[in-house]
Amino acid sequence: MNFWRRWHRWLGVVAGVLLVLMAGTGVLLQIDEVGGFSEKARQAAAARRGPVPPLDMVGLSARVELLSGGRAVEMLRLESRKGAPIAVVQFAGAERPVQIDLETGAQKPGSDAPKPGGSTIEKIRLLVLMLHTLGIAGMAGHVVGGVAGVLMAVLGGTGLWIWWIMRRERVRRGTRATWFWK
């Protein structure tokens, strides 16, 4: 019995660290959910941007084709910006995509990925959510999170079982409780 108590104690310490992380980030997520801080920040950012005009995809695609100078287009992504829509175009044989301002026709080097949007509070919320779900480590983090959840459930059940046996023994012997680590 002493062997299992020792293993249970140290596995419980490891699970306790994960539990503190999950509890802390869970509390932060609940505070945000109740207070609506990230939603208010999202609404304020949308109000600053103003209304975004609807994109005419066919018309914009035709404009890109006209501005491409006859080059074959491999990839086309349309983005709505403050002033006017922007086309990010990957031409056949080109190393990097090109950003084309569809109003002026101005072209400049672009990037493959869209820029992450959102305010600072939204980025913090996403980080807390990724920490809470262990998604920050990708699929491996989700697997570890699932295993940790099962481990905590098993440790909780076996902890109650060990406590019940120890309590029953102390009552039988008439001794008082000892400190956890001794």
Description of the structure:
Strands 1-2-3-4 form a four-stranded antiparallel beta sheet, covered by helices on one side. The protein has 182 residues and is α+β, with helices and mostly antiparallel strands. Helix 1 (2-35) packs antiparallel against helix 4 and helix 1 crosses helix 5 (139-173). A hairpin with a 5-residue loop joins strand 3 and strand 4 (107-109). It is built from five helices and four strands; from the N terminus they run αααββββαα.
Q: Structural class per helix/strand content?
A: alpha+beta
Estimate percent helicity: 55-70%
Q: If you average the pLDDT, what whole number results? A: 76
Q: What fraction of the residues are assigned to beta strands by DSSP?
A: 5-15%
Contiguous helical run count: 5
| Cα radius of gyration in angstroms | 28 Å
How many DSSP-defined strands? 4
Key features of this structure:
182 residues, four-stranded antiparallel β-sheet, 11% strand
Which secondary structure elements does this structure contain, and how are they paired or packed?
Elements: H1 2-35, H2 37-49, H3 57-67, E1 73-79, E2 86-91, E3 98-101, E4 107-109, H4 120-133, H5 139-173
Antiparallel strand pairs: 1-2, 2-3, 3-4
Helix pairs in contact: 1-4, 1-5
How would you concisely characterize the structure shown here?
The chain is of the alpha+beta class and 182 residues long. The chain has helices at residues 2-35, 37-49, 57-67, 120-133, 139-173; strands spanning 73-79, 86-91, 98-101, 107-109.
